[in-house]
Amino acid sequence: MKYLNQNISTKLILFLTVFVGISAVAQKSATSKTPPNLLIILADQWRGQAMGFEGKEPVMTPTLDKLSKESLVLNQMVSNFPVCSPARAMLMTGQYPLKNHVYSNVNSASAPFGIELQKNAVCWSDILKQNGYSNGYIGKWHLDSPYQPYIPTSNNIGKVAWNEWASPDRRHGFDYWYAYGTYDEHDKPMYWDTNAKRDEFKYVNEWGPIHEADKALAFMKNEGGQLRKEGAPFSLVVSVNPPHSNYQTVPKKYYDLYKDKPIEDLVKGANIPAAGTEWGDFYRKNIRYYYANITGVDEQIGRILQGLKDQKLDENTIVIVTADHGNCLGKHSEESKNNIYEESLRIPFFIYWKGHIVPRIDNTFLGSIPDIYPTLLELMGIKDKTPKDIDGKSYAQYYLNGKGEKPTEQYILGAIASNNVNVNTGFRGIRTNDYTFAYVKKKGKGEYELYDLKADPFELNNIYKSDSPIVKKLQPVLVQWLKKTGDGFVLDK
């Protein structure tokens, strides 16, 4: 018995020693004075269902499959305004579109109404710059309005001009700049360098994501010692355009992974229109290419993350992988985004921070883009620098370990008429874990829509009834959001 007691005591002391040691390491990690770096990889038009580990679509994403075991994955993250410019502006400002003034895509049609990222906006990158960070931006920006004479690129020739240079005073704290406004020729992209003038853009004969991954690796290595301030913490955004259309401009090696797969294996889901219909044929024509783009981007994400490890930067870098919005690709007879359906709204979202964020797949947290800004600032130890006028709310504690407050709903809006930017157009709605409830205006007529996301995951049956308990619960919530965001959208008209 005496021996047994001694043995138990020895084991207890050993356990306490190990436990205290681990706790000390964890405490040291949590209170580290070294500011973390930040890497955001942002894809365009990548729907949240199209990831291999989710098992919902036959798409190959080995990098994200691996990352899902190392990161916090928010499977209910949405693009609150599922269109390029509004989504990107929400990410940069932490504000909803009516406040940050980007409530339509930025182009020459919306330019007369001042639709662009405001010069005086305080973006998270401005805050990081003020706190000693060296910031870099690579790829698609799409937040500055085109002005005449328009840049002579192919997407500025028609009735609507899209592409524009971001002058240095409009780059919001990004020191290193290798970017463009918006340009969809993925196999021959164009860019402005940091010091290039408006007429000094260049074309590159390489698939955009590959080229941009190369540039990201060079930034992390700080090739030539000129790309970022040595010894300073950094942030880097790598904004790749695919899997946005044009889908066919994807390297052959990625398309070949899907070319021999039977189309019936790739076309699954009750909300895909039948073959022989306009949108059913559109889906079948493009799905192999869409998946090929995703697999190609996934591989470039892997290269960037490996580069982070090679430079021994992964120990103290917060990594986010996400998208600006999703893509119906013909589902629900919708060409791509800017609608209330899950394929348009749901986006991938991974956040990795070694030793800080507990890896897990979270299927209930209702993530919203404006919340990313304040959450990041709190995680990075500069919560007190968060501007008072942002709409987003920090959920840093929940990101770290799954404990703490969670959102109860997501506010969604979109399809605001770009030809006259009338805010009383399009849709406004509320999304919860169980329902999507929205009022949708098309061609001057409005209709309520309610979908049960659990019983009807393909959103085939509008179950709206004015006296439904769920309607009586969610409609006042929607009204509150309209007031909170200063939205002039009128329900029931």
Question: What's the alpha carbon Rg, rounded to whole Å?
Answer: 23 Å
Query: What does the largest sheet look like?
Result: 8 strands, mixed
Shape category: globular
CATH topology of the largest domain: Alkaline Phosphatase, subunit A
Given helix and strand content, the structural type is alpha/beta
Strand content: 5-15%
Main-sheet strand order equals 4-3-7-1-8-9-2-10
CATH class of the largest domain: Alpha Beta
Sum this structure up briefly.
By secondary structure, the chain is of the alpha/beta class. It is built from 13 helices and 14 strands. The strands form three sheets. An eight-stranded mixed sheet has the order 4-3-7-1-8-9-2-10, sandwiched between helices.
List the helices and strands and how they pair.
Blueprint: H1 2-30, E1 37-43, H2 62-67, E2 72-74, H3 84-93, H4 97-100, H5 124-130, E3 134-140, E4 176-180, E5 190-191, E6 202-203, H6 208-221, E7 234-239, H7 252-255, H8 263-266, H9 278-310, E8 317-323, H10 342-345, E9 349-352, E10 360-362, H11 372-379, H12 396-401, E11 410-414, E12 426-431, E13 435-442, E14 445-452, H13 469-484
Parallel strand pairs: 1-7, 1-8, 2-10, 3-4, 3-7
Antiparallel strand pairs: 2-9, 5-6, 8-9, 11-12, 12-13, 13-14
Helix pairs in contact: 6-9
Properties at a glance:
493 residues, Arylsulfatase, C-terminal domain, Alkaline Phosphatase, subunit A, 2 domains, eight-stranded mixed beta sheet
